[in-house]
Amino acid sequence: MTYDTVVVGGGPAGLSAATLLARARRRVIVVDAGEPRNAPADHVHNFLSRDGSTPGDLRAAGRQEVLRYDGEILQGNVTRIENGFEIHLGDDTVLTSRSVLVATGLRDELPDIPGVQEQWGSGVLHCPYCHGYEVRDQPIAVVGGSNRPFTIHQASLIRQWSEDVVFFTNGIELSHDERLRLDARSVDVVDAPVARVVVRDGRVAGIELSDGTVVPRTVVFVGPTFVPNDTLLTPIGCSRLDNGWVATDPTGLTSVDGLWTAGNVSDSPAQLINSAAAGSKAAIAINHYLLELDVTQAVSAL
Length: 302
What we know:
By secondary structure, the chain is α/β, with parallel strands linked by helices. It has 2 domains: 2-108 and 225-300, FAD/NAD(P)-binding domain (3-Layer(bba) Sandwich), CATH 3.50.50; 111-222, FAD/NAD(P)-binding domain, CATH 3.50.50. It is built from 7 helices and 19 strands. Helix 6 links the parallel strand 12 (165-168) and strand 13 (188-190). Helix 1 (12-23) runs parallel beside helix 7 (272-300). The mean pLDDT is 95. Residues 3-279 form the FAD/NAD(P)-binding domain. It comes from Rhodococcoides yunnanense. It catalyses: [thioredoxin]-dithiol + NADP(+) = [thioredoxin]-disulfide + NADPH + H(+). Keywords: Flavoprotein, Oxidoreductase.
C-alpha cells in the first residue's frame, strides 16, 4: 500500500500533523523511534489545556487522537528516505508514500561538566519558560558554555523568577557592556571555572569551582548546543541555510518536492505548542499538495 503521507517522528509536531491529515481522510502513518527529547522532564508547561501533564501523558493523548481517525502508528527507526518516496526502516521494512513530513526534533549537547547529565531535566534545566515558575525564588545558577549568547541572555532573563541568580562564566569572556547589563539586573558573576554540579541526596546542592569552593545553589540552568536530528534530509538533497539548518518555506516545505519538516528539526526555539502548530500548518500544506496531485491525475484520466 502507498500512503498519502509518512510522518517521521511522533512528538507534538508529528502527531498534530498526522491527526489533521487523518481527519482529512488521508492515508497517514507515523513512524516513531520512541526517544522523545523531553523524556527527562517531569511536566509539560505552556501547552493550552495540557499544562502540568507529563510528557508521556501528552504523547499518549496525541497518539490516541491519531488512531481515533484511522491513522497508523509504527514503532521504528527510519534509516533513509529515497526520492519517490521510499522510507526505509532499520528492520528492513520499506514504506512507500506520496509525501513525507520529517518531525524528528533535535538533541541537546550538554556542557561537559560532571553532574549536568545526571541531573538533566530535574535539577539542571535550560528553558525558564518551561520550568522557571516551578523553581521560582530559589538560589539559581546559570552556567556558561559553548552556547555563549544563549547563556548570557539566560542569566538576565532568569532574574525574572528569582532575586538570587549567579552567572558562572565558565570560560566566557564578558565585555564591559555585558557585565554592566548583568550588574543592572542584580546578577552576580563568578569567573572561576566550574568543576562540577554538586549533588546531595539526589538533588542539586551547589556549584563547585576549580579551587574547591562550593557556591550553594538548588537549581542550575545551562545553555545546550541545539543539534537538529536532520540526517535524513541531507542525503535526499534538502538545501541548507548559512547557519547549517535545513531551509524551508513558511509551511515547512523543503527544497525537495513533497518533503516537509515541522518542529525542532528545522526550528530550534520552538516550544511544544509551537511545534504542534507547525505540524498542523505543514499538514494543511501537504493536503493541498496531495489535492493538486489528485486533481491533475483525474484530469489526465478524462
